[in-house]
């Protein structure tokens, strides 16, 4: 590592950690995030998202879901704790020439979005990065956002469908198998049928419909699949408990049944969403 590179970073900060975070964010934006487009489109179509919609996206990531809503004419605000992902969202949604922005993008918790309230639609549409498998954590995230929702506003939560209809669940079991359960404070666990309903109930929301969406995870090659899945953060606990090389090896082996003759990787999945209403 050169001295000039070290001087570019504050003391006690590992430059490679920042570089790794940027690379992972780019992998998320370029490889993984796009597999969720069928889910986003199905929700926006069902709720007739358009010019009259004011949308708050929780854990908006690199902004693809916001971009799809903005393309329908919605006024969108996104909140995310990751500076690297938000930087990519700004590339997508904020014009470089200083023209009218397509979105307001804020770092931190939902409290950061209070100035643009009230919102008629609040979404937590990422079943990977939003804590959809932890109803208590998801409810806490929603509770922070609900003071900025209009009365009767729709809140949409997304999560994994039944395991038997999610091929990716067999691959994600690698994360659970390799992680030390005594040290893991996140990662993947199988979805339960009522996870989303429990989160909505904890947040004081009224269920108002649900749906399922075919959302296959497709990748150009096994290497892209490994990079995309690692970008989710679901394997972080496994890497901490073993090492990156071991996780890469076992993940590649788990993907083998889903390789096609042309070298692509294809995993059929069904994701589900819940629509709830603010009282």
Mean pLDDT across residues: 88
Question: What's the helix-strand series?
Answer: HHHEHEHEEHEHHEEHHHEE
Second CATH tier, the architecture of the domain at 15-164 and 191-218 and 267-277: 3-Layer(aba) Sandwich
User: What is the CATH class of the domain at 15-164 and 191-218 and 267-277?
Assistant: Alpha Beta
Our estimate of the beta-strand percent is 15-25%
CATH homologous superfamily assignment of the domain at 15-164 and 191-218 and 267-277: Vaccinia Virus protein VP39
Helicity range: 25-40%
Biggest sheet strand order reads 3-2-1-4-5-9-6
Q: CATH topology of the domain at 15-164 and 191-218 and 267-277, anyone?
A: Rossmann fold
The largest sheet is: 7 strands, mixed
Characteristic terms for this protein:
11 helices; Rossmann fold; methyltransferase; two-stranded antiparallel sheet; alpha/beta; seven-stranded mixed beta sheet; 39% helix; SAM-dependent_MTases_sf; Methyltransferase type 11; 279 residues; disordered N terminus; globular
